[in-house]
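Standup, Tuesday
Yesterday: got the pipeline producing structure tokens again.
Today: sanity-check two examples.
Blockers: none.

Example 1:
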Amino acid sequence: MRGVTATSQSLVDSLKEYVIKSYTMKPNRVVIEVEASKVREVFVKLAEVLGKESFYLSTIEGTDFPEKKLIRIDYFINLFKLDTNLVLRAYLPRENPIIPSVIDLVPGALAGELETHDLLGIIFEGNTYLRRSFFVPEDISSKGIYPLRKDSGV
């Protein structure tokens, strides 16, 4: 693994059963790619290893890759005890982008899940608050348009 610090390596080691690929993006920022179905398990493992109060989910970001027929989802997590940031990354099929919700584990994920759903169409399974027009105007959402999809025409 290129450019991995000792801190990052200990994090990767604690999550090794989930890691598909990992690398250091820049100092104190490690990217760990996992299967979408395992995202919840990684959050549970982080709470187990670091403690529930030792990390903070700052952002959920989705990126559309129509040429690959995929949507990438990144969870940006501040890890206080390790003085580093984790980007937990997963890829979803563009035609059926479903991933388990983490709002019961990390309540602060609610706005990020709602925003990513409204803008890209990702379905966070188990999130009973999902709805359209959270960020997107009604005239756009009523047409089934997801503005951050590169072929949306918006």
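Example 2:
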Amino acid sequence: MKISIRKMGFAGLILLLVLSVGSSGLLAQQSDEAAKKKYAPILGAYEFDAEGQLMVINFWIEGGELWGGPEGDTPSVLTPLEDKEFAFEADVMGQYYEVTFVKNEEGKYTKCVIVTMGMEVEGVKIDK
């Protein structure tokens, strides 16, 4: 049985593609796991009372990045701020937000403070 070099090249290319897709999926999974471990103390849902209106904002890991957004709205990536633990910035449709997670007396992250346009809103972590 003879296999031409052209067929061998095509088969090698297919194998390379399969391996690269598999390894990128593995890298993304490893990246997600590392990020979930790093951000575990702050992940979850936070309830905000903004002028009498309750809003729940969820924070989770996807693609190795921290994401956040109100239920039912388009989420945004949160970019870590340098020299601040669990402080981030986000750009939502051209609007700048600073998001900071705050520890309680026992050292657990139970609050989230969002600042935008000079306004500050505080949310508390809730169990869902």
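Quick observation on example 2: The chain has one domain: 37-126. Confidence is low (pLDDT under 50) at residues 1-28.
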